[in-house]
Protein backbone atom coordinates (compact mmCIF):
# COMPACT_ATOMS: atom_id res chain seq x y z
CA UNK A 1 0.00 0.00 0.00
CA UNK A 2 2.82 2.40 0.87
CA UNK A 3 4.62 1.50 -2.36
CA UNK A 4 1.45 2.18 -4.34
CA UNK A 5 1.07 5.59 -2.70
CA UNK A 6 4.67 6.47 -3.55
CA UNK A 7 4.06 5.71 -7.23
CA UNK A 8 0.71 7.49 -7.13
CA UNK A 9 2.24 10.65 -5.65
CA UNK A 10 4.99 10.76 -8.30
CA UNK A 11 7.69 10.16 -5.71
CA UNK A 12 11.00 9.70 -7.58
CA UNK A 13 12.30 6.99 -5.26
CA UNK A 14 10.29 4.05 -6.67
CA UNK A 15 11.24 5.02 -10.22
CA UNK A 16 14.90 5.30 -9.25
CA UNK A 17 14.84 2.00 -7.36
CA UNK A 18 13.12 0.28 -10.31
CA UNK A 19 15.70 1.67 -12.74
CA UNK A 20 18.64 0.66 -10.54
CA UNK A 21 17.15 -2.80 -10.00
CA UNK A 22 16.69 -3.30 -13.74
CA UNK A 23 20.23 -2.09 -14.41
CA UNK A 24 21.60 -4.57 -11.86
CA UNK A 25 19.61 -7.37 -13.53
CA UNK A 26 21.03 -6.41 -16.93
CA UNK A 27 24.55 -6.37 -15.48
CA UNK A 28 24.10 -9.96 -14.33
CA UNK A 29 22.85 -11.06 -17.75
CA UNK A 30 25.65 -9.49 -19.79
CA UNK A 31 28.23 -11.93 -21.22
CA UNK A 32 31.54 -11.93 -19.31
CA UNK A 33 33.66 -11.26 -22.41
CA UNK A 34 32.36 -7.69 -22.81
CA UNK A 35 34.89 -4.97 -22.04
CA UNK A 36 34.27 -2.67 -19.07
CA UNK A 37 33.27 0.45 -21.11
CA UNK A 38 30.72 -1.59 -23.05
CA UNK A 39 29.31 -3.10 -19.87
CA UNK A 40 29.03 0.31 -18.21
CA UNK A 41 27.13 1.79 -21.16
CA UNK A 42 24.78 -1.21 -21.41
CA UNK A 43 23.98 -0.98 -17.71
CA UNK A 44 23.55 2.80 -17.84
CA UNK A 45 21.24 2.70 -20.86
CA UNK A 46 19.00 0.03 -19.37
CA UNK A 47 18.49 2.00 -16.16
CA UNK A 48 18.26 5.42 -17.80
CA UNK A 49 15.67 4.42 -20.40
CA UNK A 50 13.48 2.66 -17.84
CA UNK A 51 13.61 5.73 -15.59
CA UNK A 52 12.69 7.94 -18.55
CA UNK A 53 9.82 5.67 -19.58
CA UNK A 54 8.32 5.62 -16.08
CA UNK A 55 8.78 9.38 -15.65
CA UNK A 56 7.37 10.40 -19.03
CA UNK A 57 4.44 8.01 -18.67
CA UNK A 58 3.45 9.77 -15.46
CA UNK A 59 4.19 13.28 -16.75
CA UNK A 60 2.20 12.96 -19.96
CA UNK A 61 -0.82 11.67 -18.05
CA UNK A 62 -0.82 14.54 -15.56
CA UNK A 63 -3.24 17.42 -16.06
CA UNK A 64 -2.52 20.86 -14.50
CA UNK A 65 -4.20 19.88 -11.22
CA UNK A 66 -2.20 16.64 -10.94
CA UNK A 67 0.99 18.46 -11.91
CA UNK A 68 0.47 20.91 -9.07
CA UNK A 69 -0.26 18.12 -6.60
CA UNK A 70 2.68 15.96 -7.68
CA UNK A 71 5.13 18.87 -7.56
CA UNK A 72 4.01 19.99 -4.10
CA UNK A 73 4.12 16.48 -2.65
CA UNK A 74 7.43 15.57 -4.19
CA UNK A 75 9.91 13.92 -1.87
CA UNK A 76 12.19 16.39 -0.06
CA UNK A 77 15.26 14.47 -1.21
CA UNK A 78 14.37 15.07 -4.85
CA UNK A 79 17.13 17.68 -5.13
CA UNK A 80 19.73 15.07 -4.20
CA UNK A 81 18.27 12.65 -6.75
CA UNK A 82 18.27 15.47 -9.31
CA UNK A 83 21.97 16.19 -8.76
CA UNK A 84 22.80 12.47 -8.79
CA UNK A 85 21.04 11.90 -12.11
CA UNK A 86 22.60 14.97 -13.74
CA UNK A 87 26.07 13.86 -12.62
CA UNK A 88 25.45 10.33 -13.88
CA UNK A 89 24.21 11.63 -17.25
CA UNK A 90 27.37 13.69 -17.70
CA UNK A 91 29.57 10.81 -16.55
CA UNK A 92 27.96 8.47 -19.09
CA UNK A 93 29.22 10.71 -21.87
CA UNK A 94 32.75 10.28 -20.52
CA UNK A 95 32.27 6.52 -20.73
CA UNK A 96 31.88 6.89 -24.49
CA UNK A 97 35.39 8.37 -24.57
CA UNK A 98 36.77 5.17 -23.07
CA UNK A 99 34.71 3.12 -25.53
CA UNK A 100 36.18 5.04 -28.47
CA UNK A 101 39.66 4.75 -26.98
CA UNK A 102 39.28 0.99 -26.74
CA UNK A 103 38.07 1.00 -30.36
CA UNK A 104 41.17 2.81 -31.61
CA UNK A 105 43.37 0.35 -29.70
CA UNK A 106 41.47 -2.59 -31.20
CA UNK A 107 40.50 -3.94 -27.79
CA UNK A 108 36.73 -4.14 -28.24
CA UNK A 109 35.03 -7.44 -28.97
CA UNK A 110 31.75 -6.19 -30.48
CA UNK A 111 31.16 -5.16 -34.12
CA UNK A 112 31.52 -1.50 -35.10
CA UNK A 113 27.77 -1.01 -35.86
CA UNK A 114 26.90 -2.16 -32.34
CA UNK A 115 29.48 0.21 -30.84
CA UNK A 116 27.99 3.09 -32.80
CA UNK A 117 24.45 2.10 -31.79
CA UNK A 118 25.44 1.83 -28.14
CA UNK A 119 27.18 5.21 -28.21
CA UNK A 120 24.24 6.87 -29.97
CA UNK A 121 21.77 5.40 -27.47
CA UNK A 122 23.90 6.68 -24.60
CA UNK A 123 24.06 10.19 -26.04
CA UNK A 124 20.32 10.34 -26.72
CA UNK A 125 19.38 8.82 -23.36
CA UNK A 126 21.68 11.10 -21.39
CA UNK A 127 20.44 14.16 -23.28
CA UNK A 128 16.79 13.24 -22.65
CA UNK A 129 17.48 12.50 -18.98
CA UNK A 130 19.30 15.80 -18.41
CA UNK A 131 16.42 17.95 -19.65
CA UNK A 132 13.71 15.75 -18.16
CA UNK A 133 15.30 16.13 -14.73
CA UNK A 134 15.44 19.90 -15.19
CA UNK A 135 11.76 19.91 -16.21
CA UNK A 136 10.88 18.12 -12.97
CA UNK A 137 12.96 20.61 -11.02
CA UNK A 138 11.26 23.55 -12.74
CA UNK A 139 7.85 22.15 -11.80
CA UNK A 140 8.97 21.53 -8.23
CA UNK A 141 10.37 25.05 -7.94
CA UNK A 142 7.32 26.60 -9.56
CA UNK A 143 4.89 25.18 -7.01
CA UNK A 144 7.17 25.23 -3.97
CA UNK A 145 8.43 28.79 -4.47
CA UNK A 146 5.12 30.50 -5.11
CA UNK A 147 2.71 32.76 -3.30
CA UNK A 148 -0.73 34.18 -3.86
CA UNK A 149 -1.25 37.77 -4.93
CA UNK A 150 -4.66 38.99 -3.75
CA UNK A 151 -5.77 35.33 -3.82
CA UNK A 152 -6.01 35.57 -7.59
CA UNK A 153 -2.71 34.63 -9.18
CA UNK A 154 0.00 32.07 -8.47
CA UNK A 155 3.50 33.37 -9.10
CA UNK A 156 5.98 30.53 -9.38
CA UNK A 157 8.95 32.07 -11.11
CA UNK A 158 7.96 31.24 -14.69
CA UNK A 159 5.52 33.18 -16.82
CA UNK A 160 3.89 30.99 -19.48
CA UNK A 161 2.09 33.03 -22.19
CA UNK A 162 -1.70 32.88 -21.77
CA UNK A 163 -1.34 30.04 -19.26
CA UNK A 164 -1.67 30.45 -15.50
CA UNK A 165 -2.03 26.76 -14.69
CA UNK A 166 0.77 24.85 -16.48
CA UNK A 167 1.15 21.09 -16.65
CA UNK A 168 4.26 18.96 -17.01
CA UNK A 169 4.26 19.36 -20.80
CA UNK A 170 4.71 23.11 -20.33
CA UNK A 171 7.72 22.51 -18.10
CA UNK A 172 9.10 19.98 -20.58
CA UNK A 173 8.70 22.58 -23.33
CA UNK A 174 10.61 25.17 -21.31
CA UNK A 175 13.34 22.71 -20.38
CA UNK A 176 13.92 21.26 -23.84
CA UNK A 177 13.96 24.68 -25.51
CA UNK A 178 16.86 25.57 -23.21
CA UNK A 179 18.40 22.19 -23.94
CA UNK A 180 18.32 22.77 -27.70
CA UNK A 181 19.17 26.48 -27.80
CA UNK A 182 20.81 27.26 -24.41
CA UNK A 183 18.36 30.15 -24.05
CA UNK A 184 14.74 30.78 -23.07
CA UNK A 185 12.03 31.51 -25.62
CA UNK A 186 8.61 32.96 -24.86
CA UNK A 187 8.54 31.87 -21.19
CA UNK A 188 9.70 34.54 -18.74
CA UNK A 189 11.70 33.84 -15.58
CA UNK A 190 10.40 36.07 -12.78
CA UNK A 191 12.06 34.74 -9.60
CA UNK A 192 15.72 34.62 -8.59
CA UNK A 193 15.55 30.88 -7.85
CA UNK A 194 14.33 30.15 -11.38
CA UNK A 195 16.91 32.44 -12.96
CA UNK A 196 19.69 30.61 -11.13
CA UNK A 197 18.30 27.22 -12.14
CA UNK A 198 17.88 28.41 -15.73
CA UNK A 199 21.45 29.74 -15.75
CA UNK A 200 22.80 26.39 -14.55
CA UNK A 201 20.67 24.59 -17.14
CA UNK A 202 21.83 26.85 -19.97
CA UNK A 203 25.52 26.48 -19.11
CA UNK A 204 25.23 22.69 -18.77
CA UNK A 205 23.31 22.50 -22.05
CA UNK A 206 25.98 24.47 -23.90
CA UNK A 207 28.83 22.23 -22.75
CA UNK A 208 26.74 19.07 -23.07
CA UNK A 209 25.78 19.89 -26.67
CA UNK A 210 29.39 20.80 -27.49
CA UNK A 211 30.57 17.44 -26.16
CA UNK A 212 27.83 15.67 -28.11
CA UNK A 213 29.03 17.26 -31.37
CA UNK A 214 32.59 16.15 -30.63
CA UNK A 215 31.43 12.65 -29.73
CA UNK A 216 29.33 12.42 -32.90
CA UNK A 217 32.36 13.27 -35.03
CA UNK A 218 34.37 10.53 -33.31
CA UNK A 219 31.55 8.03 -33.77
CA UNK A 220 31.35 8.85 -37.48
CA UNK A 221 35.12 8.52 -37.71
CA UNK A 222 34.80 5.03 -36.22
CA UNK A 223 32.73 4.01 -39.24
CA UNK A 224 35.31 5.21 -41.75
Automatic annotation (TrEMBL):
The keyword Transmembrane applies. The chain crosses the membrane at residues 12-30, 36-57, 78-100, 112-130, 199-223. It holds the Pfam family DUF1345. Keywords: Membrane, Transmembrane, Transmembrane helix. InterPro entries: DUF1345. This is DUF1345 domain-containing protein.
Amino acid sequence: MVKYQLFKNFDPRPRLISAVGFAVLVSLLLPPWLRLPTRILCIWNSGAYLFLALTWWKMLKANPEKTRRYARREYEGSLAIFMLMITAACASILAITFLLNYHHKGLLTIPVPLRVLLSAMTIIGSWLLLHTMFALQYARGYYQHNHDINNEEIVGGLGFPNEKDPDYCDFLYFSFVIGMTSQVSDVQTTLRYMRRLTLLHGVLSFFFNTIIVAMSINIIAALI
